[in-house]
Write a structure and sequence with these properties.
The chain has nine helices and 17 strands. The protein is an alpha+beta fold.
Length: about 425
């Protein structure tokens, strides 16, 4: 992924400028065909060379110095550039999407950009915050905190459970409860934050989206006892759909499509904020049933957030709520150990959504006996972000994403 060609190309350009002209050879430059007229026609004020340390200004670019007056007009043919090649001390690599600026300051003009892992020729640190670099034959500046000398920096980041960026995480049959899963040929995908790392992995589970999942049954509880509340499977049932198909919004949009979009937005926001993200379903379909999704989160994440909208016939947006843990399953040993944290996570998410101005249903929770809850051993919650009447525009999903992020920050102690 590293653009290794960037440095040699830059070097060639710099050598060319060294051979064919720099500031001190202005007279010779003007003697070149096609250059004299341009230079003469510019009427660049006397002394402008001195203001720029004797360098000829690249007339394509009047913004090299913020103190320069707006007297330089665009001229296509004149490409004389000063030579900075001797000043280059090394190569560094960007750790983010960052700006290349004309001066060492965030108010300065943006000259270009670097992508993560892209290389740049560096000159020196000018202060604790800014690195002088050479970019397109110009001296420019980049915030040094986003640069590293290590081209392999990204590959060396690992999650707190030992995963690398892009790793797929399938169901390990040795994990507790793995043998209760009926559909597990798919895999979750790990995304690691590049910077401001919190060393926390959030399992983001876009509800539904497992083809064939509704025609396979799995046990509701690991001890094979009966379900204690209603829901998509009635109370008293011992087995439930491995993964249901989900509802359709009243405008016909399938829930599974919106849960995926919401998960992708939440992933983006979490990564930006230094969380690692385990995307349980990273595309339209993943062959992982609810038990497999839960067991993978138990072993590869620090919490499990399943995203849903509620199926009902209401013709108005009922608001957001989370599925709280019914008393009837709190005796299961894994549930006994974590249910209070399940509910604290749910409360944090509801608080985050509420503070964002989003509508909350009732008191924000509803007891529900879910497969997800009864197999969980890390804080786990099913969040219902509304119902079939809810606005599911991208703008609304971002609002909800920020609300969820705020709740996650609160849960993990980052206010
Ligand atoms: Zn759902």
């Amino acid at each position: 992924m590293i653009k290794k060609a960037a440095v040699p190309l830059l070097f060639c350009l710099l050598v060319s400028s060294l051979l064919f002209g720099c500031g001190q050879k202005e007279e010779e430059q003007q003697a070149e065909p096609g250059t004299v007229e341009e230079a003469a026609g510019e009427e660049t004020p006397e002394g402008s060379d001195d203001e720029n340390g004797g360098f000829v200004i690249d007339l394509k670019d009047g913004s090299i110095s913020s103190t320069e007056e707006e007297t330089v007009e665009t001229t296509e043919e004149t490409t004389t550039a000063p030579d900075y090649s001797a000043m280059i001390t090394g190569t560094m690599y960007s750790m983010d999407f960052i700006n290349i600026r004309a001066e060492a300051g965030t108010d300065s003009e943006v000259i270009g950009h670097l992508n993560p892992e892209e290389s740049i020729a560096v000159v020196e640190k000018v202060n604790s915050e800014w690195m002088q670099v050479v970019y397109e034959d110009r001296l420019c500046y980049v915030a040094s905190e986003y640069l590293t000398e290590d081209p392999d920096w990204r590959a060396k980041i690992v999650s707190n459970r030992g995963y690398q960026n892009g790793d797929t995480v399938g169901l390990n049959p040795a994990w507790r409860f793995a043998d209760y899963s009926a559909i597990n040929s798919g895999a979750a995908v790990m995304y690691l934050a590049d910077r401001n790392r919190k060393n926390i992995t959030v399992g983001v589970n876009a509800g539904h989206g497992t083809k064939g999942g509704s025609s396979v049954k799995t046990y509701c509880h690991p001890d094979k006892t009966a379900k204690v509340t209603g829901g998509s499977t009635a109370a008293g049932a011992v087995t439930a759909m491995a993964v249901s198909d989900g509802m359709n919004f009243h405008d016909g949009t399938p829930e599974k499509k919106v849960t995926l979009q919401m998960a992708q937005i939440l992933k983006e926001l979490l990564l930006e904020n230094g969380y690692d993200v385990l995307m349980i379903r990273d595309g339209e379909d993943v062959q992982l049933d609810n038990i497999a999704r839960t067991v993978i989160c138990n072993n590869a994440a620090d919490c499990h957030i399943a995203i849903h909208w509620d199926g009902d016939s209401l013709d108005y947006d009922k608001g957001c709520f989370y599925m709280s843990v019914p008393d009837g399953i709190k005796y299961l040993d894994n549930v006994a150990a974590v249910w209070q944290e399940d509910e604290r996570l749910g409360e944090c998410l509801i608080k985050g959504l509420s503070e964002r101005g989003l509508k909350i249903f009732s008191n924000g929770s509803m007891d529900m006996d879910l497969t997800q809850t009864s197999y969980s051993s890390v804080p786990s919650v099913d969040i219902e972000l509304g119902n079939g009447s809810s606005d599911h525009s991208t703008e609304r999903l971002y609002e909800q994403g920020y609300g969820l992020l705020s709740g996650i920050n609160s849960f993990f102690g980052f206010e």
